[in-house]
Amino acid sequence: MKKRVVVTGMGAITPIGNNTASFWDSVKQGKIGFGPISYFDTTDYKCKLAAEVKDFNAADFIDKKAARRMERFCQFAVAAAKEAMEDAGIDMSKEDPYRAGCAVGSGVGSLQVMEKEHTKLEEKGPSKVAPLLVPLMISNMAAGNVSIAFQLKGKSINVVTACATGTNSIGEAFRTIQYGDADIMVAGGTESSITPIGIAGFSALTALSTCEDPTRCSIPFDKDRSGFVMGEGAGIVVLEELEHARARGAKIYAEVVGYGCSSDAYHITSPAEDGEGAATAMKNAVKDAGAQLEDITYINAHGTATHHNDLFETRAIKLAFGEHAKNIKINSTKSMIGHLLGAAGAVEFVACVKELEEGYIHQTVGLTESEEEMDLNYCKESSKEDICYALSNSLGFGGHNTSILIKKYMES
Question: Could you confirm whether 339 is annotated as catalytic?
Answer without folding.
Answer: yes
